[in-house]
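tool_log.txt
---
The assistant was asked to compare two proteins side by side. It first ran the structure predictor on the initial sequence, then on the second. Raw inputs and outputs are pasted verbatim so the downstream comparison step can read them without reformatting.
(1)
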Amino acid sequence: MQHLTLVDRIDSAITMTTAVVDGISPDQFAAPSLCAGWDVRDELNHLVGGVRIFTAALGGPPAGADHDADWLGGDPHLAYHEAATADRAAWRRPGALDTTVHISLGALPGPMAAVVHLTEVLVHGVDLAVATGRGQHIDQRQCADLLTTMHQAGGIDPFRRPGMFGPEQPAPADATPSRQLLAYLGRAAEHGATEMTAKA
């Protein structure tokens, strides 16, 4: 896999997730997400925090808080846009993929960190699209490619534990790539479900 392709995939995942977030209305932030115990605002807050922490690890602006902080404040849309803009710039910095990235999973080579980050942005973007009825924004090609990447890397079984991913869930053979991806990561039932086995 070419390094530029990975960066482009992150960029495309940000674009998809931005379209989803932009459409979230104020009354939807209290709606349940696919993550048990989280509403839509909680999941967006988790995503923005993760993006900020990754950006800092890549040499961007310091995160300034830990992952459980309130990253959204009074304007969740603005908070997301500022984080996404900084994230794009961080991954486009020369040599970003040659950097060892230090996150909660440990010290990761740049390409591995990029796949982890791609997963975070794309999957939470799909989660939010499902939870808020914006499935038309889901990039099915990206979902299919990420699922293939995971299988080619040997799967995610080492990460199936509380706080990360739950057991694989069933999905129909003719399910969309996004449905297959969510089921593989432990999200339960059909699009529109409000439950999953673990946060990721």
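(2)
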Amino acid sequence: MPELPEVECIVRSLRPHVEGRRLSGVDIRSPRVAAPGAAAWLGRLAGSAVLRIERRGKFILLQFDSGICAIHLRMTGRLLWNAIPGAWTRAVFAFGQDRLLLDDIRQFARIHAGPQLPDEVARLGPEPFALTAAGFRARLQGRRGRIKPLLLDQSFLAGLGNIYVDESLHRARIHPLAQAGRLSRPRAEALHRAILAVLEEAIAAGGSSISDYVDGAGRKGGFQRLHRVYGRHGQPCPDCGAPVRRIVVAQRGTWFCPRCQPRR
């Protein structure tokens, strides 16, 4: 699933093409990708101008002068500018002679549209870059659960997924099963710094292309070559050389270094 860095890269690649353009129409080719009421609202948006395109968590938001369209790519969705429609094209946004395609082999992607942000977006927690270290610590206080499931919770922090949680925890030297509410101030601040650093580096590298992800121009990311633990079971930790381990946390494959990230 595209996470914050991948979605940010998609938005940046599409921004020069769609901002200021008027939507000619939308062809929904698979009703499964449209949330209830979305298709009707997209019909009303025809002729409206895109004021801006931005990211919120893992959502891509197209803000029109008369409504909003929110797209979540989920597992295998892609947004591609002026690509050729194919068997996996589920929706086509037309802008005059240009088009924005939503391709998704598994049809898990979702399009929301209406006069305001959908509830799925409104319920999101703060953006990582909007939180100070003190604000991050405050959100951890009183939490009884484990740190990895908490970081995956989009109502706690928006945009993080499996890749960047594992990478951030490794940099901060925190075990994925550590109690979130018991992290000391130095460890909580180290985790906050690690999250921001990992996200910034991933965005600069164009995101992580593990399987399906490409940006709006069809370009793959390069951050997967810089992963320290994610997907590297049995390989040496780049910091200490110990073999990276894989466990399951919150039903998600989880990679960590048992030497750098001792459970305590």
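---
observation on (2): Residues 128-256 form a domain with the Helicase, Ruva Protein; domain 3 fold (CATH 1.10.8.50). The beta strands are 25-28, 50-56, 59-64, 67-72, 77-81, 89-95, 98-104, 110-114, 245-249, 252-256.
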